[in-house]
């Protein structure tokens, strides 16, 4: 099959033929309908995260089940699925307690080693092992994933668009509804209005937030934020974002979401908080980045700093529910799609994301 391989930062990504083996016990093979291009893919391309290489890129996607491994009873051939980059093992302490986004098997085996649950890969090229990326590797014509990583959704949902639910939507909306549990009437600031940030905004709207302040340096993204529910907008290219938030809301905000993941934006999110506020780190920084805050202020103001991995979702429950919300008109997905490109144009799609000219590009095999 065709796939997009990353080897190192000195080489452009490679669109090439690779071999894919049959699914093993508990796994399924999925024909990819669409793969979203996300900033996490950029972190890999820039060499900002440790990863087992060479690897097939991509972790956001959707498709159709075409083959079942031994013992799989939860899915059938022909099922429409959204891929989850946290395929819960179902057996570790966190999975058993309902915190599947913290799956220990994914955190210690699947993600860092670039393999599936049994510690091996299903991908190769001319005898060379090719690693999986976050248990998905959606920049390909087909994938082999654990059955728990292929979440069945309704058949009438457009397969290409709902690929976004697998990362951007689940991460952004989940950070609001699950990680932070934003209450109706709350005040919210969102730093970064990209694919994830816009979903934080519409998550805050779903939660019934009273004021939602969108912050970005690109006017076109700020304009789009209003469609997703922002009540106020700040162009951080011309003003200090923290000062501007306190001008809108002198007492600070109840929740500040960093949807970018830089040292500066994380520190800004903490500085925007009011009494009892929570800063939620959603965007992922490069490995080793450090941010600072004043512990005394945090303690005296009864504030919190929360990390949000994958929106703290339960994939089998939350992904179908988010697709239902989209189909019912409660969530906007179509405006997030900047363009559709063939899989062979993955490098150009990554470049578009790098320059900030795209929200989400869908790669269509």
UniProtKB/TrEMBL annotation:
<keyword id="KW-0520">NAD</keyword>
<dbReference type="GO" id="GO:0051903">
    <property type="term" value="F:S-(hydroxymethyl)glutathione dehydrogenase [NAD(P)+] activity"/>
</dbReference>
<dbReference type="InterPro" id="IPR020843">
    <property type="entry name" value="ER"/>
</dbReference>
<dbReference type="InterPro" id="IPR036291">
    <property type="entry name" value="NAD(P)-bd_dom_sf"/>
</dbReference>
<feature type="domain" description="Enoyl reductase (ER)">
    <location>
        <begin position="8"/>
        <end position="364"/>
    </location>
</feature>
<dbReference type="GO" id="GO:0046294">
    <property type="term" value="P:formaldehyde catabolic process"/>
</dbReference>
<dbReference type="GO" id="GO:0008270">
    <property type="term" value="F:zinc ion binding"/>
</dbReference>
<dbReference type="InterPro" id="IPR002328">
    <property type="entry name" value="ADH_Zn_CS"/>
</dbReference>
<keyword id="KW-0479">Metal-binding</keyword>
<dbReference type="Pfam" id="PF08240">
    <property type="entry name" value="ADH_N"/>
</dbReference>
<comment type="similarity">
    <text>Belongs to the zinc-containing alcohol dehydrogenase family.</text>
</comment>
<dbReference type="InterPro" id="IPR011032">
    <property type="entry name" value="GroES-like_sf"/>
</dbReference>
<keyword id="KW-0560">Oxidoreductase</keyword>
<dbReference type="Pfam" id="PF00107">
    <property type="entry name" value="ADH_zinc_N"/>
</dbReference>
<dbReference type="GO" id="GO:0005829">
    <property type="term" value="C:cytosol"/>
</dbReference>
<dbReference type="InterPro" id="IPR013149">
    <property type="entry name" value="ADH-like_C"/>
</dbReference>
<dbReference type="InterPro" id="IPR013154">
    <property type="entry name" value="ADH-like_N"/>
</dbReference>
<protein>
    <submittedName>
        <fullName>Dehydrogenase</fullName>
    </submittedName>
</protein>
<keyword id="KW-0862">Zinc</keyword>
